[in-house]
Amino acid sequence: MAKRYEELEKLVSEILVDLRKFYDDGNKAAGTRARKGLLALKNWAHEVRKEISAERAKAEASKGAAKSKSASAKKAPPKPKKK
Prior knowledge:
81% helix, single chain, 2 helices, mainly alpha
């Protein structure tokens, strides 16, 4: 997690420099760099989201496998509702 956090900090700090140059000084080239950095941030976030989903699926699969071994007996059918 620390590695990912450092990557995020680096991306944001680089974007911040260019955003300030664009908005404060009117530097159009800095605006282009900021847009490029924001796209990189979006792609980074997408990668992290995929990693998180994969970790969750892996954890649920291992949890489900352990559960299925212990719950091998069939469950009783649900009771009918009274009208």
